[in-house]
Amino acid sequence: MAGRLADRLAQGRERGFVGRRAEGERFAALLASGAGAVVHVHGPGGIGKSALVHWLAAQGVAAGRTLLRPDAEELARDLADGEFAARLAGARAVLLVLDPADAIVDDPGGLDERLLHLLPADALVLLATRQAPPLAWRTDPAWHGLLHPMALGPLDPADSRELLRRRGVPGPERDRAVRATHGHPLALALAADLWRQTGTGLRRLGDAPSVVEALLEHLLEAVPSALHRAALEASAQVLVTTEPLLAALLEVPDAGDVFDWLQGLSAVHRGTRGLYPHDLVRRALDARLRWRAPERRAALTRRAVAYYQRFFDAGDHARQRTVLTDFAFLHRDSPAVATVLTPVLDSVRDAAPPLLERLTIVPAAPGDLPALRAMTEAHEGRDSAELLAAWDGHPAATTSVVREPGGPPKGFSTVVVLGREPDPTGPTGSASPAAPADPAVEAARGWLLDRDGGDLRAGEHALLVRHWMSREQYQDVSAVQLLITLRLTHGYLTRRPPALTLLPFAEPERWQLSCAYVDFTRAPGADFTVGGHRYGVFAHDWRRTPPLAWLDLLCGRQAGDDPRALPAAPAPPHSGTPDREPFARAEFGHELFGHEPFTHPEFSREEFAAGVRQAVRGLGRADGLHGADLLRARLVTSAPDGRTDATRVLREALLEAAAALEASPLDRRAFRALHHTYLQPAPSQQRAADLLDLPMTTYRRHLAKGLARLTELLWLRETDLRAGRAGRPGG
User: Fold this and answer.
1) pTM for the full model?
2) Dihedral of the CA atoms 294, 296, 301, 304 (nearest 10)?
3) DSSP character at residue 113
4) Which pLDDT tens digit goes with each residue over 592-608?
5) Secondary structure (DSSP) of 601-615
6) Which of 255, 387, 423, 663 sees the fewest Cβ atoms within 10 Å?
């Protein structure tokens, strides 16, 4: 048989190589020039460095170059004993390939001092390492024009599909594998191998532990200790890792050494705000942690939440805006919000500074109005654009513009303040000029003043996000959309919030799940039509769930096994007189809303049940009952004299009612579900079900019954107190 096995191997490698057109063109130009150069291919493990170097070397040989491929680690010895110099004698048009060349590059003086002076002026040196060229090479003018770095990233979708095609993966499976791997060559090769071995396509990394382990083995350098491995796992759970955050995640007083190690890894990028692992490394680490140690994964998320909340508790406005993006990233697993977070996830995948950091949102300038009108007319029609212009300059309306520094508007939002008065008023309550005849405001006011709608009371105001859009994507997912959302949220958390916020959507059905996740409920009574376009409105009542309690709610939903199964936001209260004081957190009512909290609201049965659900979720935390709605229930405020700690009274009432359930044989199974979910909470609902040895559906049925029975006992006590009768949970 003619030829050698090595020849067949080389031919197979040649057939399997795809992509890297730009790198190939640059190398072809160097070959054509005949000049000497040092080509430095670099990138994380598995990104295809060796495949590219093999292919470039073959092109060099085809162009008449003399290929030399010594072992890079033995090269120092060969240089010392003169063996390498002997191999060079008489060689012309040398192509020297060093792969891997980390040992050479780690000694940046070694290459030029001991090697380059032996090579002829027309020699080409081809290096492959995980790390970028040393700083000394990049800053020394002697290397200018000689050094040609080639940083490798993932393959584009077309090349990824072609790689899979050449390896026998059928058409329908290719797109799924490309989505799962995002074009990482080693991951694509492993996906093809999985198909050949099992006939199973790769849809998610978490579905193939063998692929995950193989990836991590190639992607990561040696991990010195369990602490270093924990640091890697922690960095995969957060958007950006800083040294103080890493210390909090690892629960150590000082993470300086392990942070330094982390930033030295080729699979970890260094950004302006901190460190973040290569996207495939992040997802592989996360997939492994998810199936090997889900409790540890959940604990890391809880620690991250606690770290971010510090900035809100301390009122650190400078950090809150960026922390909001980090906080939002923790919700990436939720099907309700993952799509909305696409700009953040894309920036992580592309290893680029998040677009949110390049964009700014500032008050609209007088010269912006024509661009904003054109944007509005393009997406919503002329009538809507005329209303935008009519609101321009009105004291009740504030327009903010999203732009990159020095660039034109990329999007904007206009927020209108609404009070009980006939015309909108400013935040101070001062009278404003007559407002435009705007169907959106008319519908919003009608709903707000309805006792069964928003029930806006005297002295309160609501915010209507009258216009909001991106120039390119309108209200679809975009960095502009996310920035507007985060900036509005920042305002709620750092300033006196409105009583309610109303948010309109041109396609409300698309956003039903996402809005429900963030506690915005559908308000059909506030829907409106302009220019033939109908808009659906969602609303959040900040009196019922104030900002800090709202953050707690989102944290709970992020940690839940099924966020969609959590209780829906309770309806705004609408009993009593129209001008009663609004709900506010007992400890923060004056600070947030500018008035003293009231006592003795007469809860409806539905409101009381919502209050019980809110309260039991806080039982597992020391301060979890602060701000609970039931602190104003009669079962708390009617406590005997001397009992001034309202949260203690509420906690005891809940535990007494739970004890009554435990004592009842018919309620004991329901009590056990309550116990492992709220009284002594397990890390997750799945873990609680495991402790009870129940299927998830049965566990949730017991839990629902437990909540219902607990509510019944407490409601009986509440109504007894209203009627002037003493009541106990078990009575």
Assistant:
1) 0.53
2) -170
3) I
4) 222 233 334 567 777 78
5) ----HHHHHHHHHHH
6) 663
